[in-house]
Structure formats: structure tokens, C-alpha cells
Design a protein that fits this description.
Number of strands: 11
Protein name: glutaryl-CoA dehydrogenase (ETF)
Number of domains: 3
Mean pLDDT: 96
CATH class of the largest domain: Mainly Alpha
Order of helices and strands: HHHEEHHHEEEEHEEEHEEHHHH
CATH architecture of the largest domain: Up-down Bundle
Shape: globular
Enzyme class: oxidoreductase
Domain Acyl-CoA dehydrogenase/oxidase N-terminal: 16-127
Strand content: 15-25%
Structural class: alpha+beta
CATH superfamily of the largest domain: Butyryl-CoA Dehydrogenase, subunit A, domain 3
GO molecular function: fatty-acyl-CoA binding; flavin adenine dinucleotide binding; glutaryl-CoA dehydrogenase activity
Low-confidence stretches: none
Number of helices: 12
Oligomer: single chain
Helix content: 40-55%
Distance between the termini: 50 Å
Largest sheet: 4 strands, antiparallel
Pfam families: Acyl-CoA_dh_1, Acyl-CoA_dh_M, Acyl-CoA_dh_N
């Protein structure tokens, strides 16, 4: 029997003992370390950095990567972990995504063996925190329009530009930064747009000219850390460049990993919200009866639970395909588009069950809904994923 009342289809029975063990260990961490404190962290806009070593000890950093001190877990195991973390808070799930699915994956997929050996073990252990710089103030959904650039001067690269909405940047020890490089400097002549090609660089954050500042007054993802980064003639050695997969193929492969985690994570926010509403409805009395005994309340709880079950089955289907090696790129867009926008509607509806109490930090639905405003935007907006799927259906590229 499932441990969650919203699991109307006993989806839990579809997981192996190993998968359930991963889920339960992360859930225990969330219950013990996140739930008692998250309302204060969110209210005070605090990223609890003391949790990062514990996340590393759980094997969460780069957990889906093999070797280099990483846990080598399956896609489904990784997904279950992300669902449980986001049931605590999406901002803390994002920490694992930025570290593992973005920064570590960038080095793992695009780096040299020397780069992997140098950085990945220390990132897996949490000794070094990483960040991933692609988005810019004027380049979000269209990263090909980025302005950050690097060029060769002798045996060095010189990096200039700006990045924005970069998770963990102000506490990171290393940054993976994507910049436009003259094709002749990049070693890929003929492959660049307007004579340039996008390349990734490993940038230690103590390099002169690198500055990162947290973005303030956020209304979402308050228990996490997003930053602006400026590069003012940042000088890097020749071997700072990631040698594999020139062009946007490199960062896009990392975004695919992060999007996959969102498919599961969003359902964690939704499930936590509905279970909070269910508990409240069974305890709160109105007109001499518990809220849960009224037809309108039951309809809300049923409709929300049905959507959670569908979203979880979608996540599981995509996770199994990823583990089998049969996944197609558009499937990630199916999951991210559906589950992010479904989850935010569930959280908003769950808040209505709580009435006025639902706008306080005592209950999670509105906090989850606020966080999902960011989740729905980052790693591809609804519009971007709609066009990806539209192209899959019609064969026509409608981005321009």
C-alpha cells in the first residue's frame, strides 16, 4: 500500500526496492532538515548552505553520473530524489540541479579527461560548488543571441560579458560559462554563426575580473540563490575551454538533464500541496462539519489527485525510457510543459482549501505555487516547449 494518500493508482508498486530506498532516504532528509525550517528560510530569503554537505553525503550531487565519485544512480532514482526534494522546496531541489545536472554534467559531457578528474570528484563531495552561466540579461529563450564573448590573446582566453539568473554563482568555486568565440580561435572554422561559435569555459570564481551578486527582492525561489555575473577581462589558460561539442549542442544537453529533473520535481510540489490541503480539510470544521465532508472540497481534492497521478505516470514513463536509452528529446518537453503548468494550478487550487490560512508560511501550497512561477519559466518556458512539440507534430519550425 502506498505511503501517500494521493497515490490512487498505487504507482509506488511500479518501483523497485532500490528505487524506493533512494526515495525514502531523501524523504527522511526533507522531513528532518527542510520541513521544520523552510517557512523561515523562505520568509528571510536564506539559502541554508549548511545543508549542502548533507546533500553531498546523500550522494545527490551528480547522482546520475558514473565515476569520478558520483553515485551512478538511474534516471528513475534521480527523478524520485528530485520529487522528494521539491516536496520540501523547489529552491533546494534547484541546488542539486545546478550542481549536478548543469555544472557537473557540462564538464562530464563536454570536458577533457583531465578536466573531469580535476573538478568532478570535489564537486560530487560538495567540496566545490559549481554554477552554470548561459542566460543573459537579453538572452534567455534565445541563447544564440548571447553577447558574452571570449577571444585568444597569446596562450590565454580573455572573457567579457554578463550573465543573469545564474544559480549558486556567489557561493560557487567554479563556473561553467558559455561564450561566443571567433571561429578561428575556437578551432571550428565554418561552424559558427556570423563567424562565431558558442563554447564552454571552466572559470574558477576567484579569477580576477569575475564578480557575482545575488539578485534581491525575489518573490519566488526565496530559499535559493540566483545571481548576476560580470566578466571584466577575465583571463583564463588555454586549457580552460571545454573541448567537446562546440556550439549550443553542449549547453542544451545539460538543459535536457535539468528539465528532466523538473518533470519529477514539479509533482513533488503538487503532492505536498494536496496532502497539506487534505490534512487541513479533515481537521478544519465549518458549519459543524469537517471541510472534507463537503462535496465541493472533495471535488477539489479528487481533481488535484487525478492530475498528480497522471503527472507521476508521465514522469515514470520518461524516466524508464531514459534508463532504457529509448528516450527522444521531445519527450522531455512533453514532461516539462505538462507537469510544470499542471503543478502550479494544483498548488493554487490547494491554497483555496486552506482559505485565508493558506497565504501564511504555516502551510506550503502558496510557497510552492510561487516557486513554480520560476520553475515554469526556467529551463524553457511554456512557449519554447510548445514550439518544440509543435515542430515534432508538424515538421515546421515556428521559432522565427
Amino acid at each position: 500500500m502506498s505511503k501517500h494518500p494521493t497515490d490512487l493508482l498505487n504507482i509506488e508498486s511500479q518501483f523497485t526496492d532500490t528505487e524506493l530506498d533512494v526515495r525514502d532516504r531523501v524523504a527522511e532528509f526533507v522531513d528532518r532538515r527542510i520541513r521544520p525550517n523552510i517557512a523561515e528560510w523562505f520568509d528571510q530569503a536564506i539559502l541554508p548552505t549548511e545543508l549542502l554537505p548533507e546533500m553531498a553525503e546523500l550522494g545527490l550531487f551528480g547522482m546520475h553520473l558514473n565515476g569520478y565519485g558520483c553515485a551512478g544512480r538511474s534516471a528513475v532514482e534521480y527523478g524520485l530524489a528530485m520529487q522528494e526534494l521539491e516536496a520540501g522546496d523547489a529552491g533546494l531541489r534547484t541546488v542539486v540541479s545546478v550542481q549536478g545536472s548543469l555544472a557537473m554534467s557540462a564538464i562530464y559531457k563536454n570536458g577533457s579527461e583531465e578536466q573531469k578528474q580535476k573538478w568532478l570528484p570535489k564537486m560530487a563531495s560538495g567540496e566545490i560548488i559549481g554554477c552554470f552561466g548561459l542566460t543573459e540579461p537579453t538572452a534567455g529563450s534565445d541563447p544564440s543571441s548571447m553577447l558574452t564573448n571570449a577571444h585568444k590573446e597569446g596562450d590565454e582566453w580573455v572573457l567579457n560579458g554578463h550573465k543573469r539568473w545564474i544559480g549558486l554563482a556567489s557561493i560557487a568555486g567554479v563556473a561553467v560559462i558559455w561564450a561566443k568565440v571567433p571561429a578561428e580561435d575556437s578551432g571550428t572554422p565554418g561552424h559558427g554563426k556570423d563567424g562565431h561559435v558558442v563554447r564552454g569555459f571552466i572559470v574558477p570564481t576567484d579569477t580576477p575580473g569575475f564578480t557575482a551578486e545575488p539578485i534581491q527582492q525575489k518573490l519566488s525561489m526565496r530559499a535559493s540563490l540566483q545571481c548576476t555575473i560580470d566578466f571584466d577581462n577575465v583571463r583564463l589558460p588555454a586549457d580552460a575551454i571545454l573541448p567537446e561539442n562546440p556550439g549550443l549542442r553542449g549547453p542544451f544537453a545539460c538543459l535536457t538533464e535539468a528539465r528532466y529533473g523538473i518533470i519529477w520535481g514539479a509533482m513533488g510540489s503538487a503532492r505536498d500541496s494536496v496532502e497539506a490541503a487534505l490534512d487541513y480539510a479533515q481537521e478544519r470544521e465549518q458549519f459543524g462539519r469537517p471541510l472534507s465532508s463537503y462535496q465541493l472540497t472533495q471535488k477539489k481534492l479528487v481533481d488535484m489527485s487525478l492530475e498528480i497521478n497522471k503527472g507521476q505516470l508521465l514522469a515514470l514513463r520518461i524516466g524508464r525510457a531514459k534508463d532504457e536509452g529509448t528516450i527522444e528529446n521531445h519527450m522531455i518537453s512533453v514532461g516539462k510543459l505538462n507537469n510544470a503548468r499542471t503543478a502550479i494550478e494544483i498548488c493554487r487550487e490547494a491554497r483555496t482549501v486552506l482559505g485565508g490560512n493558506g497565504i501564511t508560511g504555516d502551510y506550503p501550497p502558496l510557497r510552492h505555487a510561487n516557486n513554480l512561477e520560476s520553475v515554469r519559466t526556467y529551463e524553457g518556458t511554456d512557449e519554447v516547449h510548445t514550439l518544440i512539440l509543435g515542430q515534432k507534430l508538424t515538421g515546421q519550425n515556428a521559432f522565427r
